[in-house]
Amino acid sequence: MAQPNIVLINCDDLGYGDLGVYGSTINKTPALDKMAAEGVRFTDFYVASGVCSPSRGALLTGCYPQRIGFGEFDGFRVLFPGDAIGLNPDETTIAGALKDVGYSTKIIGKWHCGDQKEFLPTNHGFDSYYGLPYSNDMGRQVEDPTIDDHDRLEALRSRPPLPLIRDAEVIQEQPDLRALTERYTEEAVKFIRGNKENPFFLYFAHMYVHLPLYASENLVNASENGDYGACVAGVDWVAEVLFDELKRQGLDENTLVIFTSDNGSRMQDQGGSNGALRGRKGQTWDGGQRVPCIMRWPGKIPAGEVRSELTSTIDFFGTIANLTGAQLPEDRTTDSVDISPLMFANEPTTSPRSEFFYYDGNNLEAVRDDQWKLHVRKEDEEVNELYDLRADIGETNNVYDQNPDVVARLTGLIEACQRDLGDQVNGIQGNDVRPHGRVENPDTLTHYDPEHPYIYAEYDKAERG
């Protein structure tokens, strides 16, 4: 079998209930609904963190964020412009492993694994890069009148212009965000056309649906869910364009397309939905880390299957490596397992992933197996909570006292994970963790000159998140 092309679409803050096929009645997503009808949809699929940078680092390396020094960043939960920290260049990414076996590799969109030159995608296995190095709310925006913290206001006022990057060079400052997804899509189509004779890996990392919400006028006018619904429709439109292009180039039946999100929605009061899940982005309730995942590969993945087995973005690396002949690194520990048996199955089967750990930063808060989820901590508070996720998806009925054997077994998993990956709040250093990258004298990719503010077009929305 020829090496398959891999297209990985990763949304930003898209919630579990934001797609039609996952229960939304207000967002129109015909292309993604069709993708699920033609492929497999996962219902119990998790990201390794409830926020951006750790989640993305885990996806790319097949490791829990804590293993690669990505649990937190000098006390912050995500990376910011000009931070000295980034994904260690010694780490092997999916892109690097695929490049080693002959793939062309490209990332389009949000990176958020460090903006120093040493940490950019072209130093992590990607042949080329076109996109924003971090979130779209990290540029220059109009002032938010609800912020009364002086230090935070000063930091926001001095924030540098948002950079659009090609490879390692800034090609535009403060790009028009209403048109950026269309530009990303044009770039993706060019990449597919230019690599139709050799295997390729395309990582399309959406700006949508992270705040601020900017969508083209036609999508806003057609939306029944305001700007949020328009951005979800933009995600769906991109999928439709990519599927059409793969078919046009005769690549459809040799391309695995994966669709997912980096964490749950924080926008339940502004159009977003985590469905029946409890919690939101940034939390270790399932609403923060359980996300949509759809895979499509005509002729290989059975159409219309729904998988409820435990799976994670951490498993992309091991799965893709198995399908392409690439190799997971052998000189270090990874956490990725091959979930391709679930992709190709016509009936329920056992997941290669037997448990999943939930961290907030470097603090271990919960563990899940196939059925049960044990919470031992929530932010600053120790808790004793056990939920049967097969019967109680919303984590509403605490059955801790009724199931001492389950609690004891899962507590053993927690203790083993603490020894392996660490648990900061309990003063435990992991036995098998590696450092993030760090540079001396970091600098931002762009610079704000207060003497010449007129050259910077501030974005007209104060939304951040």
TrEMBL record:
Keywords: Calcium, Hydrolase, Metal-binding. Pfam families: Sulfatase (PF00884). Residues 433-450 have a biased composition (Basic and acidic residues). PROSITE patterns: SULFATASE_1, SULFATASE_2. Residues 426-450 are annotated as: Disordered. SUPFAM superfamilies: Alkaline phosphatase-like. One of its GO terms (molecular function) is arylsulfatase activity. Transmembrane segments: none annotated. Residues 4-326 form the Sulfatase N-terminal domain. It comes from the Bacteria. Belongs to the sulfatase family. This is Sulfatase-like hydrolase/transferase.
